[in-house]
Specification:
single chain; 434 Repressor (Amino-terminal Domain); Rossmann fold; six-stranded parallel beta sheet; four-stranded parallel beta sheet; 12 strands; DNA-binding; HTH_LacI
């Protein structure tokens, strides 16, 4: 136990978590320092010479030291601080998650908690970063934003730590809950709307096909078509990477390959906006000659030309439910999964087909 109440590893007898079995005493011995000095240096406690602090931190890193991973010792007791972990993308991506910041903070404050927001590299995640943040800030629990899926290292670390954690990517564990937007239902809503407008030959712009949300959105879209006896033709499917540029690049090729296509449903708003831009550039009027629909309901879609019809996530409800699930985990409840239905946001980028 350090002077500021935080607990760190001090040479545990076994390596149950698979991480390096390096403790404060081992670092102290290597540097010929007292264990208390090493502990203060690692914790940022006042009174340690800056040069000594730097030496201790560099040596600890080189030796593979991380704070104790046992959740009971690692997670802060009574800090009232919740870590909110946001992916730092190295590529073009939707910023819709920003709209979740305020409702998450408000929901946490209603329980007497506060949020600390951490931006974490998505593609080059630093090993043990979650562990370090939890230990250094005495976090009671975590909220992991999309797109930290089960395969991502930060999610694997959270599951190994068994820190109370809620995510938005359908990952559930003993101390991990999930709340998701019902993407299959969203796909159905989109398909049904376009069918009601008289469209039968509908293109689909998918994101990375291996992602859960892409599979679910397309499955729901196909469900809607099957309800009226239509099997979606795979030749009407193009694949992008969720960026607007990928939507623009694939849109014209899809239309040229399927000249009879009268509508296009895109798996996110950025690809839909890219598609509209490219269609317009090529003299195809939206929605006069082709209806285009997006997915996510990002705020800026109200100001495209024309305003984008899209599937809107119930973000405030999702945030409120995520905090409720986290409070349940902190109270000792097991992990669980909840799904919140999205809704159709009808605008001017789609229109009834004129026969």
């Amino acid at each position: 136990m350090t002077g500021d109440g935080r607990t760190f590893e001090s040479d545990p007898p076994g390596n149950k978590t698979g991480f390096h079995d390096v403790g404060i005493k081992a670092i102290a011995k290597a540097l010929n320092l007292s264990a208390s000095t090493v502990s203060r240096a690692l914790n940022g406690v006042y009174g340690v010479n800056p040069a000594t602090r730097k030496l201790v931190q560099e040596t600890a890193k080189a030796m593979g030291y991380v704070p104790h991973l046992g959740a009971k010792q690692l997670v802060g007791k009574g800090s009232n601080m919740i870590g909110v972990f946001i992916p730092q993308f190295e590529f073009e991506a939707s910023t819709g998650f920003i709209e979740m910041f305020s409702p998450i903070q408000q929901a946490l404050q209603s329980y007497g908690k506060d949020a600390i927001f951490f931006s974490v590299p998505f593609s080059d995640y630093p090993k043990h970063r979650l562990t370090e943040f939890i230990g250094s800030r005495s976090l009671e629990g975590c909220l992991l934003f999309p797109a930290f899926s089960e395969a991502h290292p930060i999610m694997q670390e959270a599951l190994e730590l068994e820190v109370p954690c809620v995510n938005f990517e359908d990952v559930v564990g003993p101390r991990c809950s999930s709340v998701i937007s019902d993407d299959r239902e969203g796909g159905r809503l989109a398909g049904r709307q376009l069918l009601q407008e008289g469209h039968c030959i509908i293109g689909y712009m998918n994101g990375p096909p291996h992602l859960r949300i892409c599979k679910e959105r397309y499955a729901g879209f196909c469900d809607a078509l099957r309800e009226v006896g239509i099997a979606h033709d795979s030749r009407l499917v193009a694949v992008g990477d969720f960026s607007g540029s990928s939507g623009a690049a694939a849109a014209i090729g899809l239309k040229e390959s399927n000249p009879e296509m009268t509508a296009l449903f895109c798996a996110n708003d950025l690809m839909a906006m890219g598609a509209i831009m490219e269609f317009t550039r090529n003299g195809i009027s939206i929605p006069g000659q082709l209806s285009v629909m997006g997915y996510d309901g990002d705020t800026f879609t109200a100001y495209t030309s024309p305003p984008l019809t899209t599937i809107l996530h119930a973000r405030e409800e999702i945030c409120t439910r995520a905090v409720e699930l986290l409070m349940g985990l902190l109270a000792g409840n097991p992990g669980r999964r909840d799904a919140i239905s999205p809704r159709l946001l009808g605008r001017q980028s789609t229109a009834r087909m004129i026969v």
